[in-house]
Amino acid sequence: MSNITYAPLPINLIPDEASPAWMNKGDNAWQLTAATLVGLQSVPGLIILYGGAVKKKWAVNSAFMALYAFACVLICWVGWGYQMSFGDVLIKGLRFWGKPDVALNQEYLLEQAFMGKIPNATMVYFQFVFAAITLILIAGALLGRMNFYAWMLFVPLWLTFSYTIGAFSIWSPNGFLSRRGLIDYSGGYVIHLSSGVAGFTAAYWVGPRSKKDRASFPPNNILLMLTGAGLLWMGWTGFNGGDPYVVSVDASLAVLNTHVCTATSLLTWLLLDITFFRKPSVIGAVQGMITGLVCITPAAGVVQGWAAILMGLFSGSIPWFTMMVVHKSSLLLQKVDDTMAVFHTHAIAGALGGILTGLFGHPRLSFLFYNTYGNYVGLFYGFQMGGPNVHTGFRQVGIQLLGIFYIVTLNVVVTSIICFLIRFIVPLRMSAEDMEIGDEAAHGEEAYAIWGQGEKLDNSRFGGYDIESSAAKSRAAAGQIEMA
Q: Which N-terminal residues, if any, form the signal peptide (predicted)?
């Protein structure tokens, strides 16, 4: 019998009603922080990136599409979306969709989440910011012409009938691709491939911008765009670092791999621009940054540092090639007006990351993330270990390719149906007259009002608020009071 005695727990670690024994305070604190970092990528990150990257006349509309999506997704998420993505199977035997249900009940929110030592309330919040940024990325393909009322309908419909299916299939422990062993560490499939394909498909149905805008669409504020890009990059610390749902060595590795791959991708894109166009393009560098972030996302915590470097080289060159070379020779790519090149930066980079994950996935690192050994083996390591591991490696690549086919098919079909149905309610695109005007026509507001240009007339069709006449009326009323 052991005579060892243990010191009592420090008072701050003793479980109580507010901190139950199953909850890890450090994990919960990091998860809330990581979720907020991802939220900052959208609000204000993509808001100001979009607002700065478009023409001046579209700055308000582009930023507001992002802000609206963030708010709308949250209400839909707690109303039914979270449970459809991570709850019980909707139809027994068909493991691709969950039952719609609310995630607002106090008793449910304070229980332990399906993974990790955190409460459901934290998990709902964490998964919400991923769902929200997916819709905002789709908006990037539609800037400069989509009817805002159509966007208001598109957001809840696409979240409900596309995002929840992809998330359940790949991320839910009950999902069929999750059970088959697909590796999607933090959303290369669920978020980036989905948004890239859905954005491209929706752009096809909405149609192109006006000829004038498509011919010349200079950013109105590159420094503002860079600020948004910086928030996007730094926010990715939470994007990939939060997905183990635990403060672990694997989370630390995922964060470092994320930044290493991104820096490599940015520099690769920059060198290609200098080599072929003789100019170090700032906008090109931002594109390279984004493709690096996207490519590493499905692999962040399951690949070694050298693999992150290689993935950065691929993500800085292959999407560059599809955007600068293939795009110019493809009739389909030229026909579809993808404003922010979401297809190249997210669909191509996301698919690339998924395939490279199947090649570079390390068995030991996969064990740290999935807590099972031998089921997640990259093809290169399968050859290295030999024997049955070669078959396991080929199987992993096959599963990664199956996931790409599934997500592409899902989003082409569902996005097309949604756009078709919205057409019966409101037009998908703004009128030619409104597209000529931009923000003033869509919202009755301008991003940068120079003296004398920001006034609104009382009889305008937007019901504008005339500040000067209102002030005059107030002064007159004040004079009447003094006289009385």
A: none
Whole-number percent of the chain with pLDDT over 70? 92
How far, in Å, CA of 276 to CA of 365, rounded? 38
69 touches 132 (CB < 8 A):
yes
- Would you place residue 465 in the very low, low, confident or very high pLDDT band (cuts 50, 70, 90)? very low
Q: How far apart are CA 149 and CA 127, in angstroms?
A: 26
Q: Return the bridge partners of 89, or none.
A: 98
Q: In the chain, how many domains are there?
A: 1
Using a 10 angstrom Cβ sphere, with 0-12 exposed, 13-18 middle and 19 or more buried, the burial of residue 144 is buried
- Domain coverage including residue 72: 25-434
Rounded Cα gap, residues 320 and 295, in angstroms: 13
Instruction: Report the candidate in 187, 183, 158, 165 with the shortest Cα–Cα distance to residue 94.
Output: 165
Domain annotation covers residue 469: no
Please check whether residue 361 is in contact with residue 377, taking contact to mean a CB–CB distance below 8 angstroms: yes
Identify whether 138 is part of a domain. yes
Residue written as tokens 């991923």?
Answer: 130
Q: Is residue 470 part of a domain?
A: no
What pLDDT, on the 0 to 100 scale, is given for residue 450? Answer: 65
> Are 160 and 75 spatial neighbours (Cβ–Cβ below 8 Å)?
no
Q: What angle do CA 204, 399, 198 make, to 5 degrees?
A: 15
CATH number of the domain enclosing 429? 1.10.3430.10
Residue that the structure tokens 């993808």 belong to: 338
Cα torsion angle, 50, 51, 57, 58, sign: positive
Say if 190 falls within a structural domain.
yes
- Contact assessment for residue 39 and residue 31, using Cβ atoms and an 8 Å cutoff: no
- The predicted model scores a pTM of 0.91
Closest CA to 312 of 255, 352, 364, 358: 352
Write a three-state SS string for 160-214.
Answer: HHHHHHHHHHHCCCCCHHHHHCCCCCCCHHHHHHHHHHHHHHHHHHHCCCCHHHH
Q: What is the rounded average pLDDT for all residues in the chain?
A: 92
Torsion sign across C-alpha atoms 359, 365, 366, 367? positive
Q: How far apart are CA 446 and CA 55, in angstroms?
A: 12
pLDDT digits (tens, 9 = 90+) for 46-88: 999 999 999 999 999 999 999 999 999 999 999 999 999 999 9
* The token pair that represents 383 in the structure block: 């050859």
Q: What is the pLDDT of residue 451?
A: 53
Contacts of 63 (CB under 8 A, 6+ apart): 47, 48, 50, 51, 447
480, pLDDT greater than 70: no
Report yes or no: 299 and 188 within 8 Å, Cβ to Cβ: yes
Encoded amino acid at 337, one letter: D
- Cα–Cα separations (whole angstroms), residue 76 to 132, 194, 417, 428: 10, 19, 20, 22
